[in-house]
């Protein structure tokens, strides 16, 4: 059993202290689950989560200084081993789409029962996805019908830069990309800087989201 090995470590991000305390107490009362950190803002979470490297980050979607979705995208672009569970007040296609594009393992409503949230955390920690396949297919179909055509932005990329862009889209770190392409990590970093500049982007998380949108808009065929 997991409890006999090591605890599932969890980080909580929610701007409402009462919600954080409630979730903290709920999860901490379970065998095999340990809450290792909390934050009330996206900025704080982006500093603390990479340092703590929890198994699961439970992220509120709406924050005073940004979005839990963006936090998820940033975190997973640097360390795909951190699984993200989005917490939202209401479900809609846009929320689901954002969660899919950010690489979240799922999203749950704040009205969820305690036992269901605990089960969701355990499932996400085990690498399982909570995203409903039917709803996911509906969202991606909608995107294919009206998705943005941005292929002209790729024309300036070299073949190697395009290859690296695809790997960023898979969630690989610079080190992992270097291992895949048999290149030094520093060389990959230079390629990434170049392709971001050509695409008019500042962060690799933006590139990852861009790749995801292209794949959805073309039905996965590029």
Cα distance spanning the termini: 43 Å
Physical arrangement of strands within the biggest beta sheet: 2-1-3-6-7
Which overall shape is indicated by the principal axes computed on the Cα atoms? Answer: globular
Which bin fits the share of residues in helices?
Answer: 40-55%
User: What is the residue-averaged pLDDT?
Assistant: 84
Number of helices: 11
Radius of gyration: 18 Å
Q: Strand percentage, roughly?
A: 5-15%
- Structural class from helices and strands? alpha/beta
The SSE order reads HEHEHEEEHEHEHHHHHH
Question: How would you describe this protein?
Answer:
- With 222 residues, this protein is an alpha/beta fold.
- It has helices at 2-5, 17-28, 42-52, 68-78, 93-102, 114-125, 133-146, 159-169, 174-181, 185-199, 204-217, and strands spanning 8-13, 33-39, 56-60, 62-63, 66-67, 83-88, 106-109.
- The chain has a 5-stranded parallel sheet, with helices on both faces. Strands 4-5 form a two-stranded antiparallel ribbon.
- β6 (83-88), α5 (93-102) and β7 form a beta-alpha-beta unit.
- The N and C termini lie far apart (43 Å).
- Mean pLDDT is 84; it is low at 146-150.
Identify the notable features of this structure and list them briefly.
222 residues; alpha/beta; 55% helix
């Amino acid at each position: 059993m997991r409890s006999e090995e090591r605890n599932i470590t969890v980080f909580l991000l929610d701007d409402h202290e009462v919600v954080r305390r409630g979730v903290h107490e709920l999860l901490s009362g379970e065998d095999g689950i340990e809450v290792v950190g909390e934050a009330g803002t996206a900025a704080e979470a982006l500093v603390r989560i990479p340092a703590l490297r929890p198994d699961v980050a439970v992220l509120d979607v709406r924050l005073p200084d940004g979005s839990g979705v963006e936090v998820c995208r940033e975190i997973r672009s640097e360390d795909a081993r951190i699984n993200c569970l989005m917490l939202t007040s209401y479900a809609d296609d846009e929320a689901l789409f954002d969660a899919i594009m950010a690489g979240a393992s799922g999203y749950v409503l704040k009205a969820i029962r305690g036992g269901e949230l605990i089960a969701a955390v355990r499932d996400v920690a085990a690498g399982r996805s909570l995203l409903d396949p039917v709803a996911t297919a509906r969202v991606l179909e909608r995107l294919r019908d009206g998705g943005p055509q941005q292929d002209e932005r790729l024309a300036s990329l070299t073949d190697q830069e395009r290859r690296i862009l695809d790997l960023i889209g898979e969630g690989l770190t610079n080190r992992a990309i270097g291992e895949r392409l048999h290149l030094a990590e520093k060389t990959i970093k230079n390629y990434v800087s170049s392709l971001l500049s050509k695409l008019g982007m500042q962060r690799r998380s933006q590139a990852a989201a861009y790749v995801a949108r292209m794949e959805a808009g073309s039905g996965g065929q590029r």
